[in-house]
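Is it possible to get an amino acid sequence alongside its tokenized fold?
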Amino acid sequence: SNLNALNIDEAIKSTILNNPKVKIAIEKLTESKELISYAYGSKKPTLTSTISGTYANADKNTSTASTTPETLTDKYQLTVSQNLYDAGYNELEIARSKILFNDEVIQFKITLQSLILEAIEGYLTVINYEKYLEANQKNYDSVLKAFEETKTRFDIGSATLYDLQNAEASFATASSNLFAAEQNVQISNKSFKRVVGLQAINLEDVLNINNLVNLSNTIETAMDQNLNLLLAISDIENKKILLLKEKKSKKPSLDISGTAEYSDSGRIDSGTKLTQGSVALTLTIPLYQKDQDNSNIRKYHSQILQSEIYLEDFREDIQIQIYNTYKDFKISESNMSTNQIVIQSIETSLNSLNEEYNIGTKTITDLVNEEEKLLNANVNYLNSKKNFITNYFKLKSLDGSLIKLFEHYIPATN
């Protein structure tokens, strides 16, 4: 193959490394890690300090004297608080933060999976449109030759007006097809660069894929590894923790706090100093919470049930998606073989027609008609090949193994 050619592996590598959606997903992972840090921080002591200064004066009058005492008070206070018992509430929050982080990891993989499929689709689209253009150019050249020859024959009287109009119509169609093919190549190249970040130059039409797909194995693997299915399972675990947290909020909690205080208070000219400390234990027992806690408990029970029903339905949906994609995969595989046979048949017929045209038993119109058949057969083959490859990778995405094919390009998520 061409040493400068861009293969599908390199295209996907560039997509993973350069696509803005991947960069955004990585930042979301970084943000999600802070949930874990915050949850662990809830178990640590709280340390606060207070500094205050108060100035006061007052007029004092007696029968013998009148004074205006001025008082300045400085106070410094340091307080340490620590929860001793919360019935496991903070531990649940730590567990939940890890689930939420894992959800972001799954979402990150879903983003990558979607972009990989988009890159593959774009890669195949560019290749197909380039080959469409090549085939249309050949067809255009043949039709142009036929049109010019028919005009010459019409001028000398050996072709009818119908022959000329028919050749002109074929030429107009070929010109239109060629223009459309050129536009498709330009647009597909722009789309490819937006997703992959590279120019679609010298793309290699080489894809080594294992077409021995086992349907039952694919379904079995999907039930364990499908990314959206894992997300649905995680959602149930998250709601179960929210339910447990709500139940824990009805339990007593015990906190300890210690305070050290220093104050300097008195008149401006002569004050007093005081240093004192205290330790307090606080037991909080929820007695009545307006029945809001019970309402939330019922709500989470309902949400868990909804999520479990959705999960079972989603499992069925994934299996149907796999069945349909596998069906399309096998149909496109069969169509590839059929179209190859059709192409070989038309090429044989075209060779025979060329010989007959050279000896005068066939017209240029006969050749043009056969060329158009070959063009359509090539287009059908390219479409079936694209569908075959695309459906193969769709099956890999449905069973959750697509990411593993390109994991050596994927950034670490831990």
Remarks:
- The mean pLDDT is 82.
- The chain has one domain: 8-54+70-409.
- The CA atoms of residues 353 and 367 lie 6 Å apart.
